[in-house]
Design a protein that fits this description.
The complex is a heterodimer of chains A (103) and B (275). Chain A has one domain: Immunoglobulin-like, CATH 2.60.40.10. The two termini of chain A are 28 Å apart. Chain A has no helices and 7 strands. In chain A, the strands form 2 sheets. Chain A has a 4-stranded antiparallel beta sheet, with no helix packed on it. In chain A, strands 1-2-5 form a 3-stranded antiparallel beta sheet, with no helix packed on it. Chain A is an all-beta fold and 103 residues long. In chain A, a hairpin with a 4-residue loop joins strand 6 and strand 7. Chain A is elongated and about 55 Å long. Chain B is mainly alpha-helical and 275 residues long. Chain B has one domain: Cytochrome Bc1 Complex, Chain D, domain 2 (Orthogonal Bundle). Helix content of chain B is 47%, strand content 7%. Chain B has 10 helices and 7 strands. In chain B, a hairpin with a 4-residue loop joins strand 1 and strand 2. In chain B, helix 3 packs across helix 6. Chain B starts with a helix and ends with a strand. Classes of the chains: A mainly beta (103), B mainly alpha (275).
């Protein structure tokens, strides 16, 4: 299974800033290995975020996103104590969900 | 000349100066120096330093029972007593009485993995960086370094070996060789030097807070790798066209001792973020 994400969510006023660090190789499928064979693409395709179970963000990602990607977004109406959950799915069908509490 | 006339002349020349400044300022703003540009880029990335992922991995590894002996590393003595992690990073390398040798963080971790967990230390030392157990050593070192973030370097220099290694490290720092007749000092012995776009700190003296020895382990954005001090030194030698030094060899530990003692009083920012 994939390594955990690091999620931090900080409330300020009626918004919360969420910072997510994901652990993923994000292989583009364009590189060749030492033997000259193409390294197969392996990257996150879908990212979703929920606030107390309600979807607040969904994104489609491709091979241009960096290795170990960092995502930051602002959620309106999130208060301290709310739960933010982030899920990614990659093109190999692997997925990972992590949750954080808004501080 | 009347006073009024003089004042007017002054105002006029001042106005002219301002106009000239304004004209000069616009292109100056557009053309930042390269190092300013890099600093800005680093600041943008600093908030999401992926080294945090390695810290988390390292902390898990420390507390997880592994190896043939199925033990954790929580009894590992990094110099301040078994299990003490906070503050140890800024006191390494140092002399360890049990192994009767000078050890840096990584070689000490390998000793613990061998004695506590029953893993093969020689095998780990031979493993290339970033592979197998070697990547675990780097993750562990990253977490342990992060537990000393903001503390000042203060390597012990009481034991004879510690003094000897400092002296040996100094000589290695100035030793020229290889096809390019390079020494560490060729790049790190003078102010204002850089390699490609990277400013090179002067390491024969104290380079200041969070520079040089006080910045590694670090995450390298360009290749997405976590680099430990052992790998940093290994790559310095590669760039000098020296043969690769052995992992945890006396030479690398002597150099680390020299750099660490020179950095006395400087604040550690490791794990840092590099280009």
């Amino acid at each position: 299974m994939a390594d955990p994400m690091r999620i931090r969510a900080q409330a300020a006023g009626d918004k919360a800033t969420v910072r997510v660090l994901m652990s993923h190789e994000m292989e583009t499928g364009q590189r060749k290995d030492a033997a000259g064979k193409i390294v197969p693409a392996w990257h996150i395709q879908e990212v979703t975020a929920t606030l107390n179970g309600k979807p607040v963000l969904s994104a489609e990602w491709g091979p241009s996103v960096s290795k170990n990607p960092f995502l930051q977004f602002v959620v309106k109406g999130a208060k301290a104590g709310d739960k933010i959950a982030v899920t990614w799915k990659d093109n190999k069908g692997d997925s990972r969900t992590d949750e954080a509490t808004v501080a | 000349m009347s006073l009024a006339k003089l004042t007017m002349q002054k105002t006029l020349s001042l106005a002219l100066t301002f106009a000239l400044c304004a004209g000069a300022a616009a292109p100056a703003l557009a053309q930042k120096t390269t190092s300013q540009g890099i600093d800005e880029y680093r600041a943008m990335l600093a908030d999401g330093n992926p080294s945090e992922l390695f810290e988390a991995k390292g902390e898990d590894l420390w507390k997880k029972a592994r190896g043939p002996k199925n033990a954790t590393l929580e009894k590992c003595d990094l110099g301040q007593g078994p299990g003490v992690v906070k503050g140890v990073f800024v006191t390494l390398p140092r002399y360890f009485a049990d192994t009767q040798r000078m050890q840096d963080l990584e070689s000490r971790l390998v000793t613990c993995m061998e004695t506590l967990q029953g893993l093969n230390g020689a095998e780990i030392a031979k493993t290339p960086f970033g592979k197998g157990e070697q990547s675990n050593v780097t993750a562990l070192a990253t977490w342990i370094a992060s537990e000393s973030k903001g503390l000042k370097f203060n390597l012990p220099q009481a034991h004879t070996q510690e003094k000897t290694f400092y002296e040996v490290g100094k000589r290695l720092f100035y030793q020229r060789g290889g096809t390019h007749d390079f020494a560490c000092a060729s790049c790190h012995g003078e102010e204002g030097k850089r390699i490609r776009l990277q400013d090179l700190p002067v390491l024969s003296q104290n380079p200041g807070d969070g520079v040089g020895f006080a910045a590694w382990p670090a995450y390298r954005v360009s290749n997405g790798q976590m680099w430990s001090m052992q790998l940093r030194l290994n790559d310095c030698y590669r760039q000098q066209r020296f043969p690769y030094p052995g992992f945890g060899s006396n030479a690398t530990i002597a150099l680390s001792t020299y750099l660490g003692v020179n950095a006395k009083g400087s604040v550690s920012v490791a794990p840092a973020l590099k280009r």
